Queue: 2 jobs
Job 1
Amino acid sequence: MQCGDDTTTSENSMSLKKTLSVASPLTLRIVAECPVTKARACELVLPHGAVNTPVFMPVGTQGTMKGITVDQLDALGCRICLGNTYHLGMRPGPDLIEKARGLHGFMNWKRNLLTDSGGFQMVSLVELSEVTEEGVKFKSPYDGKEILLSPEKSISIQNSLGSDIMMQLDDVVSSTVTGPRVEEAMHRSIRWLDRCIAANKNPDKQNLFAIIQGGLNAELRKACLDEMTRRDVPGFAIGGLSGGEEKDDFWRMVTLSTDHLPREKPRYLMGVGYAVDLVVCVALGCDMFDCVFPTRTARFGSALVPWGSLQVKQKQYAKDLQPIDPDCQCPTCKRHSRAYLHALFKSDTAAMHHITIHNISYQLTLMRSVRQSIVDGRFPDFIRTFMKRLFPSRDQYPSWAVDALASVNVTLE
Ligand SMILES: [Zn+2]
């Protein structure tokens, strides 16, 4: 059980821990730690089975994964995926999903699920949203009615969905916004975290993760880390990044966060899914990732490969009988050629499904290789080989990645 040891000296924080401390349905076992970087390989045990980390979590919408079935996802070795609270909370609605034995029953997915708070979707999808201390007010895109998503409401929906990991409602500010609004959002997110903790009806079955905010301001982020890590939550997410900020700011905020997060709890970096970002952020100490990119890009015919991406629609593949990636073990690469997928793309959406399967397999396989290299004690070498394969020449290495890796003692030759 992950109960957080009471090592803090402040009386105030002791009493806070006592009132909020509940045995959580999550165990994190650290299997190996990289002796050079901050990377670690763990086993995260959740109510629907064990998850090996570092892990990439594919994103579903409306309870279904676009372009892939739950059986296919399971067969690829996926042990945790994301459900979308905003869409599910609107339609078909939490009551129906509760009747269907939660989102697991509704989707017929036997593995773990993580649900978001719904807040981010609202702020990014709904134009007319307004944030007050109460919550996020917005007009329903379905019937125009005004709806308030409060921390309590978000947790109530996620309790109905029955996800293994729930996310707190946070006050989302775009990562490119600066000034007093960032500070306000950070403090409000802390207050909302306490309301979410109090609202959770199933602390013995569902894990609530806090989301570290503070924008690109190191002092604010540090203050948020100090405050949130005093709460006895089962895990922490690093939020408010991957929103178009400079990559240099991005990695510095990630590494600042992992420096101050407790070693014995999982660390989830939200919205990150490019291969380079994944490998670098594992080196910076993150365990969990999610992103719509691999599945979204598949629908445009872009297949992810160790040397970048392959655009199936391009003419050069019309007569190419090789699979997308000759080294890939996924069902698409075992069965179909680039030429076949190229032809199929012209007439049939099935091509998108085949590429979606390949792309999710690519992400999961990448993370398994990363993990194995950490376990074997050769993660720095893995990074060098990975970078060489992805970039044709050294001068194409993104400078932020070079700097980020150097900060954890990995020099790229
Ligand atoms: Zn493949």
Job 2
Amino acid sequence: MGFVSLGCPKALVDSESILTQLRAEGYDIAPSYEGSDLVVVNTCGFIDAAVEESLEAIGEALAANGKVIVTGCLGAKGDVVRQAHPKVLAVTGPHATPEVMAAVHAHLPRPHDPFTDLVPPQGIRLTPRHYAYLKISEGCNHRCTFCIIPSMRGDLVSRPVGDVMKEAESLVAAGVKELLVISQDTSAYGVDVKYRTGFWGGKPLRTRMTELCAALGELGAWVRLHYVYPYPHVDEVIPLMAEGKILPYLDVPFQHASPRILKLMKRPAASERNLERIRAWRAACPDLAIRSTFIVGFPGETEAEFGELLEFLREAKLDRVGCFAYSPVEGAKANELPGAVAEAVKQERLARFMAAQAVVSRERLAAKVGRVIDVLVDDVDDGVAIARSSADAPEIDGVVRVTGAKRAGPGDFLRVRVRGATEHDLEAVPA
Ligand code: SF4
């Protein structure tokens, strides 16, 4: 592999990133065009002289080798490169290691390496190839009384933002189309390191949810947020959703609506006015889908408090909801609370809760009939593509069944028109 690196230190860092990836995948870097199977030229487009120099370098590489991939700032300047050199194999902008690697893979298959070839490029993943979970932190600073996670995993430890971004980038380069951001408390990302400024691609980036989401939104994959608590700064990510940078989807585990029960649960952000927040989020991003989970029959929950929860459910009109009857986990503080709710009452409340939500869910989905939406195909079953929209996380939410998408396969995006809705799923045809 030949490599020409032009331009400023930022371009140099891009070159380093591409070279690192090339070497990690077993490509050798050759000192001459003639001794290479392919040449990557990292260009500069800052001033005319730099444009000239870059175009000359591309011309030289084409003449001596013939197979040339262009990256860097000049690549971002419209059609300049293709007009001067129509024979180049691919053109990308700056800071585009995944795209450059994709072009390299397309024109020069990765060399065989007996040590690493059994390991897929995205590492060992238990998810299908086209989506992956991206864990941004471990542990939790809260002490919800029904939960023993902090005693098992300890306090919050956020992963360095540069590491998270690097992993996300290589997942996307390996064909992942959807990144599912997970943690115990995504909104707390970076609290433990005082939102320290890290680096990604040579640029400073704060260890903070909003900044991370904005950066992830640049990778060209779907980005879905899980386990977000309704802290005030969550409002900052809603514009990113409205702009289409990340999916308009929030998984907010509310757990209850009664202030007294939330206090007994010691839930984070328990005092937030959640209904008002939800209304404001939806006003800013009308397509926002909200998923949540709840617990009914928590120790001491009265019929009136359960009623508050049902009322919240009817008002909030959440898109996706999971609910559990409280069950004492060994070692959880909540077990010591007085007023354990009888099992039969718990089950009865669970059934009433689910019935109330079924009405909401059916309404929310019926409102989508007639709309054109984008979906990602997970599977094809008997000619029907089983896909998901921005409102559906894998495994836990519903699906969109698309008939008539003949050539669709797992990992494909489709634009579809919604034709029908059931309580949980949508039916659609290609738009
Ligand atoms: S339930 Fe509470 S304590 Fe447990 S992981 Fe979630 S936020 Fe932390």
